[in-house]
Amino acid sequence: MSFPHLLEPLDLGFTQLKNRVLMGSMHTGLEEEKGGFEKLAAFYKERALGGVGLIVTGGISPNLRGRLAPNACQLSFPWQVKKHTKVTQAVHEAGGKICMQLLHAGRYGYHPFSSAPSKIKSPITPFTPSAMSARQVNGTIKDYATSAALAKKAGYDGVEVMGSEGYLINQFISSRTNKRDDKWGGEFKSRAQFPIEIVKQIRAKVGSDFIIIFRLSMLDLVDNGSTWEEVVQLAKWLEQAGVTIINTGIGWHEARVPTISTSVPRGAFAWVTERLMKEMSIPLIATNRINTPEIGEHIIASGQADMVSMARPFLADPDFVNKAAANTPELINTCIGCNQACLDHTFALKRATCLVNPRACYETEINFTPAETKKRIAVMGAGPAGMAFSIYAATRGHEVVLFEAKSEVGGQFNLARKIPGKEEFDETIRYFLNQIKMHNVELRLNTRLDASVVRDEKFDEVVMSSGVKPRAINLPGFDNPKVVDYQKVLNGEVQIGQKVALIGAGGIGFDMAHFLCESESSTLDLERWLKQWGIDKDYKQAGGLTEQVPEDKHRQVYLLQRKTTKIGKGLGKTTGWIHRTVLKQHQVETKVGVSYEKFDEQGLHISVDGNAEILDVDNVILCAGQVSNTELVDEMKATGLPVHLIGGVDVAAELDAKRAIRQGAELAIAL
Ligand code: FAD
Ligand code: NAP
Ligand code: SF4
C-alpha cells in the first residue's frame, strides 16, 4: 500500500475509523436552503463513498444566540432532528461515519442577538455582543449537551465541539475576550471551566459509545491568546472530561496571519499538533493546508499527528481517499487553496462550491450523463475553459478534439503558477491533463485551430475557448520596448530593471508586483514564511505571535490605478487582505486616481489629483485587464456549424478561472 499510515484504521475502542482521514467541517450554504438537506445528503454521501474515514458537518448552533447568521442552522428541538437523519442515513448507507459540529459563534455572530463572555465587539463583525449572565452561561452549556443528544438521536456517530478560531469557547478561554469577574472568568483555570463543563455534560448525556471531538485552539495568533502551557493543560482537562479525539485549531478569524490560503506552505502548522502529541494519549488531528496524500502520509508517518483533517480538498475531489488507496494520487483534483468558490461564497452568503470542481455542492444538479446524440466536437484552446469542456463532454461520450496553439495545456494558468504562492495552480494543469488522457480526448498541441481544419475534418460543432489577450494602451512612448505586457514578463521574454511601474492594480497587477518583489517564493520555505508572518514556534508570547521579519527589498515597484477607490478592493474577500499585506511587506508604493501621460527617457509621466509627477522607472508593465481573443469568431461562424464561446473569448471582463471552468461544464451538459 502506498500510503500505509494514512490509510491505517484507527481504533477508538467502541468504534473503528477505516483510515486516518477526517473531512473537516465546512459550511456549504445548503444547510439553510429550502430542500437543502437532501442536497447535503447527496454531497456527504459522495464523500463517504469516496472512502473518507470520518466526516464532520458544517457548524450547527446549539441555540438561537449562537447562530453565525440570522438564518443559520440550529439543533435544539426534537422536531429539528428529522432533516439530519437524511444526512446520517445517506452517509451510513455509503459505509461512512459522520459527526455533527456544534458551533456557537459568540461575538462572531452576524446579528444583533449575539452574546459572549464579555461585551467586547470583535474587529470583524459590526455587532457588539451582550455579556452573558451566569444563568445564560449555564443555559448555553446545557444547550450544547441537549444538541449533542439530539445529534445522537439523528444518527450521528459523534459531535465535534468547535473550541477554536475565535468562536464562543475560545472567547471564554482567552483573557483577551473574557473579562468576567464571576466563576467563569479571572484565572485561566476558571476561564477553562466553560469548555470542560460542556464536554462533561455532553458525555453525561450521550454515553460512552459516542465520539466527542474537541477542536482546540493550539495557536491563537492574536495578542493575549493562550500560552503553550495553557494549551497543554486544557487538552489534559478535556481528555479527563471525556473527549475522544482532539482536533487542531489554528488562528482566530480576526488574526492577521494567513492560515489556509494558497500562499500558506503545505502542512505549515503540523508542528503545532506535533508539540501536543508528546503530551497526550488520545488521538490528535493535524489541520490546515494539507491537500495531498503525500503530505498527509508524511504527517502521520513522522508522528506529527494520529489523523489529518482536510476540508476543502473534499470539495475539490470527493474520491480523494479512494484514489490514494488505488495508488493513483496523480488523478486527484487537488484543492489549490484559492478560496474563490468556497469561503468567498460563504462570506457572500452564496452556496459554496469549488473552482476546480463545479459539481461540489451541486451533486444533484450537475451531472455528466451519457449524451443522446454523440457528436464530434472541435475545441479551440486548452485553457481552463477548453480543458474543462473537453473532459466533461468526453465523459458524456462525445468525440472531442482539443486544439492548443502552444506546446502545453493550461492557458493563463501557466502564467498564474509562476507567481510566488500560486504554485498549487500546477496541480490543476496536471489534473486536467490526466483527465484528458483518461477520457480519450484527442489533444493536438502546437496546433492552431482555424476554419479550414474545421471544414476538412468534418466536425459537428465548434467550441471556442481561445481566451484573452492583454489590453494594449496607446499613449506617447508606449511603443518603447521598455513598455511590456504582463504575459511577456511572466513568459520570461524580457529583462526587467530595478525600478518598475505597473499600470493596473487588479488581480494580475497585484500578482505581478509580488512576482517582481520575491525572487524565491516564501511558500516553499516554511521557516522563512513563519518569520515573514511573525509566527513564533517557541511561543514566547501568549498566542504565538512575534515581530515580523521584513523581506529584502529587491525592486522599487509602483502599483497604479485610475480609480480613486482603495487599492485591491476587488480582490477576493478572504484573500485580498493577504495580497495587500504582502505588498506592504515588500514596500510596494501604490497610487490611486492616476492619469497616465507618456513614457520617455525620464520615466513614466503621470498626474495624481491634477499634480504632475515623473516616476523614474526602467520599465512599465501593462496589467490593465484583458480583451477577448475573438479574431476567429466570424470565420468560425461562416463554416455554418454551431459555434459556442466559453471563458475569456466569451466575456473578458471580470473573467476568472471559476467562471471559465464552470462555463465549460455547463456547455458540456447542454450539448
Ligand atoms: P486562457 O487561459 O486564456 O486559454 C486560452 C487558450 O487558448 C490558450 O492556451 C491559447 O494558447 C489557446 N488558443 C488561442 N487561440 C487558439 C487557436 N486558434 N487554436 C488553438 N489554441 C488557441 N484566475 C483565477 O480564477 N484565480 C487566480 O488566482 C488567477 N490568477 C491569475 C494570475 C495570473 C498571473 C494570470 C495571468 C491569470 C490569473 N487568473 C486567475 C485568470 C485565469 O488564468 C483566467 O481567467 C483563465 O485562464 C481563463 O481561461 P480561458 O480558458 O478562458 O482562457
Ligand atoms: P482586472 O481585475 O479587471 O484589473 C485591470 C486593472 O487595469 C484595473 O486596476 C483597472 O483599473 C486597470 N485598467 C483597465 N483598463 C485600463 C486602461 N484602459 N488603462 C489603464 N488601466 C486600465 O483584471 P486583471 O488584473 O487583468 O485580472 C483578470 C482576471 O483574473 C480578474 O478578473 C481576476 O478575477 C483574475 N485574477 C484573480 C486573481 C486572484 O487572486 N483571485 C489574481 C489574478 C487574476 P483602473 O481602471 O482604475 O485603472
Ligand atoms: Fe480549494 Fe479553491 Fe476549490 Fe475552495 S474553491 S475548495 S480553495 S480549489
From TrEMBL:
<keyword id="KW-0560">Oxidoreductase</keyword>
<dbReference type="InterPro" id="IPR023753">
    <property type="entry name" value="FAD/NAD-binding_dom"/>
</dbReference>
<protein>
    <submittedName>
        <fullName>NADPH-dependent 2,4-dienoyl-CoA reductase</fullName>
    </submittedName>
</protein>
<comment type="similarity">
    <text>In the N-terminal section; belongs to the NADH:flavin oxidoreductase/NADH oxidase family.</text>
</comment>
<dbReference type="GO" id="GO:0008670">
    <property type="term" value="F:2,4-dienoyl-CoA reductase (NADPH) activity"/>
</dbReference>
<dbReference type="InterPro" id="IPR036188">
    <property type="entry name" value="FAD/NAD-bd_sf"/>
</dbReference>
<dbReference type="GO" id="GO:0046872">
    <property type="term" value="F:metal ion binding"/>
</dbReference>
<keyword id="KW-0408">Iron</keyword>
<feature type="domain" description="NADH:flavin oxidoreductase/NADH oxidase N-terminal">
    <location>
        <begin position="6"/>
        <end position="328"/>
    </location>
</feature>
<dbReference type="InterPro" id="IPR051793">
    <property type="entry name" value="NADH:flavin_oxidoreductase"/>
</dbReference>
<dbReference type="Pfam" id="PF07992">
    <property type="entry name" value="Pyr_redox_2"/>
</dbReference>
<feature type="domain" description="FAD/NAD(P)-binding">
    <location>
        <begin position="376"/>
        <end position="653"/>
    </location>
</feature>
<keyword id="KW-0285">Flavoprotein</keyword>
<keyword id="KW-0288">FMN</keyword>
<dbReference type="GO" id="GO:0051536">
    <property type="term" value="F:iron-sulfur cluster binding"/>
</dbReference>
<dbReference type="InterPro" id="IPR013785">
    <property type="entry name" value="Aldolase_TIM"/>
</dbReference>
<dbReference type="InterPro" id="IPR001155">
    <property type="entry name" value="OxRdtase_FMN_N"/>
</dbReference>
<keyword id="KW-0479">Metal-binding</keyword>
<dbReference type="Pfam" id="PF00724">
    <property type="entry name" value="Oxidored_FMN"/>
</dbReference>
<dbReference type="GO" id="GO:0033543">
    <property type="term" value="P:fatty acid beta-oxidation, unsaturated, even number, reductase/isomerase pathway"/>
</dbReference>
<keyword id="KW-0411">Iron-sulfur</keyword>
<dbReference type="GO" id="GO:0010181">
    <property type="term" value="F:FMN binding"/>
</dbReference>
